Amino acid sequence: MKQLSGIILCLGLAALCDAAAVPQCPEPYGEQAYLHPDHCDQFFLCTNGTLTLETCENGLLFDGKGAVHNHCNYNWAVDCGNRKFVTDQTPLSTPGCEYLFGIYPDSHSCSTTYNKCAYGEPHPEHCDAGLVYDHRIHGCQWPDMMLETCNPEAVVGFKCPDSVPSNSINHRFWPYPRFAVPGDCHRLITCVDGHPRLITCGDGKVFNEESLTCEDPEDAPYACRH
């Protein structure tokens, strides 16, 4: 988290300070954002050596890590510590959006989509296959982690068996047996406490139905090498 030396002495910038006292940007080129020592909803921005005082939009705060909009982050993701607010933090709500900027559920029931709001406009987003939106983490989650509202079998399209043959390869992974997804070389289903999860191999790997593991394409059956 960057801090700009000397800015504490001149929080109002040129309008409130003697010209000689206005701090200078430490880097003459590019764009750099710096933490405001007192205000969580403001920050200092240096653009090619020009210093400005910036204010985050409704629903956003500054922590030096976010890049949601103009270097600011979602308010729920920022720890302000002792920094206070200059602007009114009351939500400026619009249909589908609690704040002008934020991530919100599009339904009170189990949903594979959610709204990402910018300037009060909700933009529908989709969770990855097999996941549902969880308002508690402001992101997508395994449906078996949301049993109060979700039916994992309906989301994944698979029902976990109560048992598998002891001589089967599935049994090797018990109590978390694995299963192939018909026609899909990049995903598998694993059962956790009797509920299905759709897993993506990732890293360019494909699912080998013979070993029930994700492998490099050249080591997988021919059908999944391309």
Automatic annotation (TrEMBL):
SMART domains, A to Z: ChtBD2
UniProt KW keywords: Chitin-binding, Disulfide bond, Glycoprotein, Repeat, Signal
Segment forming the signal sequence: 1-19
Gene3D superfamilies, per database record: Chitin binding domain
Protein name: Chitin-binding type-2 domain-containing protein
InterPro entries hit by this protein: Chitin-bd_dom, Chitin-bd_dom_sf, Chitin_bind-dev_reg
Domain Chitin-binding type-2: 22-82, 94-152, 157-226
